[in-house]
Amino acid sequence: MTEDEIAAIQARAEREARQRVGEEQPPRVGGILTALRLSPLVGADLNLSREETLGRNVGP
Fold first, then answer.
1. Which of 12, 34, 35, 48 has minimal CB crowding within 10 Å?
2. Rounded Cα gap, residues 38 and 32, in angstroms
């Protein structure tokens, strides 16, 4: 076996192991919202507004 084949087999085994671990735990409700609330950007008061433009001319 080549090194590439061994690496592919190991990666596949790791991926399958992670999938099995995920199957053992029931899905959590609100996990995405919890992650968003824990984000460092919460309360950063970012100004995400953009100036309005006419766009570009397309076609003849």
1. 48
2. 10
